[in-house]
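Question (not urgent): is this output format expected?
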Amino acid sequence: MDIRALTPSYAVSPQITPEDLPAIKAAGYVTVIDNRPDAEIPGALHTAAMRAAAEALGLTFVANPVIGGALTEANVTAQRQAIDSAAGPVFAYCASGNRSSVVWALAHAGRMSADDLIGIPARFGYSLDWLRPTLEQA
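Got this back:
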């Protein structure tokens, strides 16, 4: 597992397993957002299995599957609501952490500068330059 803290209250990661959840909780995260559609992964990592493992540890679990190349406004709204309603730091994962970074940036459009929304994920190798026009319109 590779926790990439974009901010003190939001981190992204490539795909995790149920066995990673105790370390995520120990790191102080209270909400886990799954941005990966079940169709991309083996059954042991599907939403139901991950939700059960997270909730057994007392973590809040949010499923917000983002289909590569088919991000929706509903995805952005769901991510924003999960972040805003979290009682503490949020941990989001997908295949590489990129989609979790994209929906974070879009959820914060208008709240943070486009430069920060692009520059912060760039520290971890996520190139969000293509989002600049959208982020600047907010």
